[in-house]
Design goal:
- The protein is of the alpha/beta class and 276 residues long.
- The chain has one domain: Ribokinase (UDP-N-acetylmuramoyl-L-alanine:D-glutamate ligase, 3-Layer(aba) Sandwich), CATH 3.40.1190.
């Protein structure tokens, strides 16, 4: 089982950010070290929300204490998620660099939580710029949605071929980087993952469900950070989404025995989907 250090948001109610990633990984037997970047009552899609960002210096003091206790070594992955400020992005970069100086170098997974369609960016522009210019280059794995992919690369992502080309650009020619595009452009009743990277180019398709609670992307990136293959991670996530459809929040605990058994989803080579 993996040990994953996650830096992201935390909510009192509901399952997004750390409050999604942690129970899912712990249910599967993985160890999670949590670094909250912001503490909220709930995600801001609800009519009322309260909370505030955690100062980066306070997070750094937490990391130093974790390290002094001997708990920083041995992590298999560092997952950087929601960043409320450019200073948080800078700290995430420092943590990634600090971990990579250790004897066992963890993989760095970046979930560039910047925005979506049709809302556009929902972080400040300086945060988005810092993620693109400083955090993305440090990533071994990136998990953007189609909007984030387009924003990070300045390329169109309206069609599957365009999204593929943008993902190749984001991979930057690195033989060791995977770009996993969540919700690529597919027919209306489908969604899935487009993988471009070290294991070739693969498209994973799943049925699109309505009224899906927030947090599915956080769960997927956490499963990837824990080392699950894309098909296995997507199988768990699809089972969780099906069990949670129409609910206010992801039913991580109540449906655990169902989504834990979610069958891995097979992918197909992208050449089979030309013109999609």
């Amino acid at each position: 089982m993996s040990r994953v250090l996650i830096m992201s948001s935390w909510t009192s109610v509901g399952h997004v950010g750390l409050s999604a990633a942690t129970p899912v990984l712990q249910t599967l037997g993985h160890h999670v070290t949590q670094l909250p970047t912001i503490i909220l009552s709930n995600h801001r899609g609800w009519p009322h929300a309260a909370g505030r960002p955690i100062p980066p210096q306070q997070i750094l003091e937490m990391v130093d204490a974790i390290d002094a206790n001997g708990w920083l070594d041995g992590h298999d992955a560092f997952l950087a998620g929601y960043m409320p400020s450019a200073e948080n992005v800078s700290l995430a970069c420092k943590i990634a660099d600090r971990l990579r100086r250790r004897a066992a170098v963890p993989r760095v997974v970046v979930d560039p939580i910047l925005g979506d369609d049709p809302r556009g960016l929902y972080v400040d522009r300086d945060v988005a710029d810092a993620v693109r210019d400083r955090l993305v280059p440090r990533a071994d794995v990136l998990t953007p949605n189609a909007f984030e992919l387009g924003w990070l690369t300045g390329r169109p992502t309206g069609t599957l071929p365009e999204t593929h080309d943008a993902a190749v650009a984001l991979a930057g020619g690195s033989p060791d980087r995977d770009v996993l595009v969540t919700s690529p452009p597919l027919p209306a009743k489908e969604t899935g993952i487009l993988r471009v990277g070290r294991n070739g180019e693969t498209l994973f398709r799943t049925p699109r469900l309505d009224a899906v609670p927030n947090g599915a992307g956080d769960v997927f990136s956490a499963l990837i950070a824990a080392g699950l293959p894309v098909g296995a991670a997507l199988g768990h996530l699809q089972a969780l989404i099906e069990a949670s459809a129409g609910a206010h929040h992801l039913d991580i605990v109540g449906s655990a025995e169902l989504w834990k058994r979610g069958a891995a989803i097979d992918g197909s080579t992208l050449t089979q989907h030309k013109g999609a």
